Amino acid sequence: MPANAYPAIVVAGPTASGKSRLGMALAKKYRGEILSCDALQIYRGMDIGTAKPATTERESVPHHMLDLRMPGEAFSAGDYQRLGREGLRAIRDRERIAFVVGGTGFYLRALIQGLFQGPGRSEELRRRLSRIAERRGVACLYRALQRSDPAIAARIAPTDISRVTRAYEVYLLTGRPMNWWHCQPRNGLEGFRWLKLGIHWPREELYRRIETRVEEMFQAGFVDEVRGLLERFPAKRHAFKAIGYRQIAGFLAGKISLDDAKEQTKIESRRYAKRQMTWFRGDPEIVWLDATEGEERLLAQAVERIEAFLGPRQNDE
Q1: Rounded to an integer, what distance in angstroms lies between the CA atom of residue 109 and that of residue 115?
Q2: How far, in Å, CA of 105 to CA of 111, rounded?
Q3: Could you tell me the pTM of the whole model?
Q4: Percent of residues, the chain, with pLDDT higher than 90
Q5: 286 has which bridge partners?
Q6: The pairing of beta strand 98-102 with beta strand 6-12
Q7: Which whole-number Å values give the CA distances from 197 to 4, 41, 133, 300, 301, in the listed order?
Q8: CB-hemisphere CA count at 13 Å for 275?
């Protein structure tokens, strides 16, 4: 990419790592704007369970790619790529710096590198796979995906039927794993140069932060949020398959206790964080920042990297 391409910065990491706080601090310092890279924050009404930025934060720093759809409405990586790139170009036109903040690695890849040019959907094959999942469970499809494409399977939740189905569909249609397709040339984004920052925590400390976040979400009214959504949308909608939402929906249906819903949310969140780190460690461009020395030191590390990246002409005065 040309050295004079417009600068943009990624702040990535697993759930509960502190991405939003660091992104906010950096956007304020450099008069930037935040472009969310979260697959669930695009849904209106899903606020507490997605740790969506508060209204006050969104008023102090412009945020983009939030509240784009109602829960259950279709939204794909292709939609994110198209709208996210439009947002990046608009931020560039305002001569601001875009901070792409989030933990959905697949959306980030779609935004910057583009989507692989693999096969389209096969409705007939989808119906066959759906029948298999209904009869034998999603776990059956996931085990088949693990055998055919272990690299992609490691990045997908075993219960994420839509992504499991798509990945296995690609393999069955082409005879090649989706991971192979991801390595093929794509429609990469032009006109930008990137600094990718990642937040690193030791595993046990990250898990402690996740447990604390889950407790705070439940105290902040997470159950009421899900109850309100269920009054407006059917439980079968995709939104209620998300971590936390699925567990609380089970509690409200009388299938599990509240304590079980909370504990399962913690367990699934830890597993999700592990998959996120597997994904991000596969990106050699990410510069990892040590978060163990506190927020001030984390911010200082990020600023040091950004100053070197922007160069003397674009540094904040």
Answers
A1: 8
A2: 10
A3: 0.82
A4: 74
A5: 196
A6: parallel
A7: 20, 21, 38, 13, 10
A8: 20
Picking from 170, 158, 129, 144, the residue whose alpha carbon sits closest to that of residue 241 is: 158
SS3 271: helix
Element (H, E) at 100: strand 98-102
What's the gap between Cα 305 and its chain centre?
23
Give the Cα separation of 222 and 99 in Å (integer).
28
Question: Can you tell me the distance from the alpha carbon of 108 to that of 101, in angstroms, rounded to the nearest whole number?
Answer: 9
Q: Is residue 78 helix, strand or coil?
A: helix
The rounded distance, in Å, linking the Cα atoms of 33 and 6 is 14
Write the single-letter amino acid at 184. Answer: Q
CA dist 225 → 51, 221, 258, 294 (Å): 12, 6, 14, 32
Phi and psi angles of residue 209, each rounded to the nearest 5 degrees, phi first: -65, -40
Show the domains of the chain with their CATH numbers.
6-115+186-310 (3.40.50.300), 123-182 (1.10.20.140)
Instruction: Centre a 10 Å sphere on the Cβ of residue 232 and count the other Cβ atoms it contains.
Output: 11
The gap from C-alpha 216 to its chain's centroid, in whole angstroms, comes to 20
**CB 166 within 8 Å of CB 116:** no
Conformation bin of residue 34: beta by default, left when phi > 0, alpha when psi is -120 to 50: beta
What does the pLDDT look like over 56-77, one tens digit per residue? 999 999 999 999 999 978 888 8
Select from 143, 154, 200 the least CA-distant residue to 17.
200
| Residue 224 burial (C-beta neighbours within 10 Å; 0-12, 13-18, 19+) | exposed
- Asked if 191 contacts 2 with a C-beta cutoff of 8 angstroms, the reply is no
Residue 160 pLDDT class (50, 70, 90 cuts): confident
Q: What is the distance between the alpha carbons of residues 69 and 87, in angstroms, rounded to a whole number? A: 16
